[in-house]
Amino acid sequence: xxxxxxxxxxxxxxxxxxxxxxxxxxxxxxxxxxxxxxxxxxxxxxxxxxxxxxxxxxxxxxxxxxxxxxxxxxxxxxxxxxxxxxxxxxxxxxxxxxxxxxxxxxxxxxxxxxxxxxxxxxxxxxxxxxxxxxxxxxxxxxxxxxxxxxxxxxxxxxxxxxxxxxxxxxxxxxxxxxxxxxxxxxxxxxxxxxxxxxxxxxxxxxxxxxxxxxxxxxxxxxxxxxxxxxxxxxxxxxxxxxxxxxxxxxxxxxxxxxxxxxxxxxxxxxxxxxxxxxxxxxxxxxxxxxxxxxxxxxxxxxxxxxxxxxxxxxxxxxxxxxxxxxxxxxxxxxxxxxxxxxxxxxxxx
Length: 349
What we know:
This protein has 349 residues and is an alpha+beta fold. The chain has helices at 11-54, 62-103, 183-191, 220-246, 249-271, 333-340, and strands at 107-111, 114-118, 122-126, 131-135, 140-146, 155-162, 175-180, 197-198, 211-218, 274-280, 283-287, 294-298, 302-310, 313-320, 323-328. The strands form four sheets. It has a four-stranded antiparallel sheet with strand order 1-2-3-4, with helices on one face. Helix 4 (220-246) runs antiparallel to helix 5. The chain is flat.
């Protein structure tokens, strides 16, 4: 829960407090970036010093001391960057809530400098350049939990479905507007008698789910790149042998360490070079290869599952009440969903 900042009655005082919050947020983010950069530079200097130590003929205690100091400095800077980043994120949340309440107690952020303000007749979407009001009778409100992992915990939000004609003259599909879920928003919805569709909020925050079926889709380009890096790493590691025999032992050690690092890095990249579609009793999980998109959808929010094609590419369509998600279709995935949850595929148990 975000601690609310009091809103002064005077407009000038509100502006001063808002500017102070912006400065604090910007300062925290700048310090976090500077500390992160300093941590990287310290780590690079630490590695460079350690390599230089290998080329020393005699023992010099200054080198190991320098390595230890640089490593400690990198750790301290990394920790400081993490703390400042958290402070910046926390300040941003408080500032967002403050600017919302400056606009009105029933105003909520739905975009950059764009607010959704609840009134007796409907919701007014307004920004410095545009304003439109949508009656409640033409809107739907959904409770949505965005999950990046197969567990109960996630980020809750309220999604508003708005007819396209209120936003764009060309669009036909309803427009979805999202705002962070907070107690003030829930009180506002209750005050106006607005019912929330979708998933009901639960208190089981840390519960993990057990995987039942998994389907992997190899990322061929990433696998080829990983194999190329693996071959290069092996060549570097093997090159350390003749270097140690005919040239210098210190250079041999440094080359071998670099080769082993490349081999381990390539092996990890190869192992992760695939997308994953997993089925659980609680829902469906999708993870792109590498550090791509990750999403977990509960079965209770999925209305139906179907198959479609786009440019001869097979897709799996998970349709929710507030919109549809499309994933690459792994062989046998749709059939497995039909076996586990036939009603989601339009079948009878």
